[in-house]
Amino acid sequence: MYTKEEEAFIKYWAAHRQKKKKFFRQMLVGLPFGIVLMIAILLNFMSGWYKRAAMVANADPSLFIILLIAGIIIVAFAGVFSSYHKWDINEARYKELISRK
After folding, report:
1. pTM of this prediction?
2. DSSP SS3 for 48
3. I want to staple 31 with a disulfide (CB 3.0 to 4.6 A). Which of 10, 47, 67, 79 is the partner?
4. Measured distance CA(28)–CA(83) in Å, rounded
């Protein structure tokens, strides 16, 4: 009927599905992905490969604050989205296995 892996997943997900759905928990789990994404964006921006963008960035001193705020928003969104997506995939698998019973 079920493989050992599927039985283990059903037991695990039935016990932890509500805990992993909480917003703060999703934020903590997805935070490394968001930080890596933001570091990549900042490295691309600071590398100076696009000269016109570097000129515009150096012309306006408040751009750094705007980039910092945008970075925080990107980290939060990417973190929550990636974690919620992972939770949604596990929930769909759990419901599929339960309905197969």
Report:
1. 0.68
2. coil
3. 79
4. 9
Measured in whole angstroms, the distance separating CA 54 from the mean position of its chain's CA atoms is 29
Q: How many residues does the chain have?
A: 101
Contact 90, 13 (CB under 8 A): yes
DSSP letter, residue 50: S
Tens of pLDDT, residues 8-20: 999 999 998 888 7
**Residue 93 in tokens:** 């698998």
Domain ranges for the chain, please list them: 4-100
Using one digit for the tens of pLDDT, what is the confidence trace for 66-76?
888 998 898 88
In this structure, are residues 94 and 13 in contact, taking their beta carbons and an 8 Å threshold? Answer: yes
Of 11, 32, 26, 8, the closest CA to residue 80 belongs to 26
**From CA 73, how far away is CA 91, in angstroms rounded?**
27
Residues of the chain falling short of pLDDT 70: none
Rounded-to-integer distance, Cα 79 and Cα 24, Å? 11
Is residue 18 helix, strand or coil? Answer: coil
